[in-house]
Design brief:
It contains 14 helices and 14 strands. It has 370 residues and is α+β, with helices and mostly antiparallel strands. It folds into 2 domains: 161 residues, no CATH class; 184 residues, 3-Layer(aba) Sandwich (Trna Endonuclease, Chain: A, domain 1).
Length: 370
């Protein structure tokens, strides 16, 4: 598999190992795995970034180098890196502030095995009792024509290049938003086309959540309901949508909350029914609306969710309880319609302003990315 970032991986290996770099790549499943995971590097902010599993590799290899094991042969005697140190380091890295522990504990190994089922090694070795971690050194030492090469330093350089590329992409994204903000009113079509372009299956998960929020916030903005504790106290209130925190946060399946109705919204790009029902269970089976990054028709999405529920729960009453908790499904088609309706009401620039504001918060952008 080759993509635009592959050449940068090859350049790092050539600089470190000369002509042996090509053979090292061919014999290294870990380098090939990084090549797969970095395909979004040069595709701009629309392409989804991949940080969790890459950062799990990064922090373990960094620990390996920091302790000098790339220069010695006694890694087998190492007591292992502490989980708390690795986890903290992950979150210090760009785009890593909200990463969870899943990659370190299982997801990296599971995905690696999916791509390389014939490889006998897994990347992360872990002792659950001591909560200590190791990178599998067998994947760092590559033999080519009788000589062993250690690729630890090259892995760090490759991941750093990937980070730089993604930072640059998001910086350009925010700068584009800023430029559009200053465009004359006659160029509203340009702004519309730009935002429409962000409503696509390949858009980065965090960008999609930000754009979805901005659109729905102003779509509901002019809608009102009547609330009161008695007939005499009933008052007209506008619907207000609130974002509950940073994207990809471990917030129990609540991305947006609507006042005063108390509606919950969860943004997702998966059709894994276990995740949907886990989100529902987290909030005690309270009704929740799902904003799904999919072009599939809502009827088809409902059928797939029902089929998944029937596979997971064979009892009809249980299936119906979960399905009844899905208050609404909002797909890309519906989002586009709601965007056009909000635009027709005069909220195009407000939506753009909200996208800019939320992007600055999410990507720590203030003039330039840190």
């Amino acid at each position: 598999m080759e993509h635009e970032f592959t050449s940068q991986i090859q350049q790092v290996l050539a600089a470190a190992f000369g002509k042996a770099g090509e053979d090292i790549y061919e014999k290294s499943p870990l380098l090939q795995y990084l090549n797969i995971k970095t395909k979004s590097a040069t595709r701009g902010a629309k392409a989804r970034g991949s940080f969790a599993n890459i950062y799990a590799v990064y922090v373990l290899v960094e620990d390996y180098i920091k302790n000098g094991f790339d220069q010695r042969n006694d890694y087998t005697d190492y007591a292992g890196a502490r989980f708390t140190d690795l986890f903290q380091r992950q979150r210090e890295l760009p785009f890593g502030s909200k990463l969870q522990n899943h990659a370190l504990n299982s997801r990296l190994n599971e995905e690696f095995k999916k791509y390389f089922p014939q490889v006998e090694y897994i990347p992360i070795l872990r002792d659950p009792q001591t909560n200590r971690y190791w990178i599998n050194e067998n994947l760092l030492k590559i033999k080519v024509e009788g000589k062993t090469y250690n690729i630890a330093q090259s892995i760090i350089k490759i991941i750093n290049l990937y980070i730089e590329a993604k930072q640059s992409a998001f910086k350009k994204f925010v700068e584009t938003c800023e430029r559009l903000k200053s465009v004359a009113i006659a160029s509203n079509t340009t702004v519309e086309n730009f935002i429409m372009g962000l409503l696509a299956p390949n858009v980065d998960a965090r960008v999609f959540e930000i754009v979805s929020y901005a659109i729905l916030k102003f779509y509901y903005h002019d809608q009102t309901v009547y609330f009161g504790y008695s007939p005499e106290s009933v008052q007209e209130e506008s619907l207000k949508l609130y974002k509950t925190g940073r994207t990809n946060a471990n917030d129990g399946g609540i991305d947006f909350v609507m006042r005063p109705l108390g509606r919950f919204f969860q943004v997702t790009e998966t059709l894994d029914t276990r995740k949907y029902f886990l989100d529902i269970d987290k909030i005690e089976r309270y009704p929740i609306s799902f904003v799904i990054k999919s072009e599939e028709a809502i009827d088809e999405l409902e059928q797939k969710l029902r089929a998944g529920a029937e596979r997971q729960y064979s009892i009809k009453t249980i299936v119906e309880k979960y399905m009844n908790c899905i208050e609404e499904i909002i797909n890309l088609v519906v989002l586009r319609q709601r965007f056009l309706e909000a635009t027709a009401q005069g909220y195009l620039r407000d939506i753009l302003d909200e996208i800019i504001h939320q992007s600055r918060v999410e990507f720590n952008y203030d003039g330039e990315l840190e």
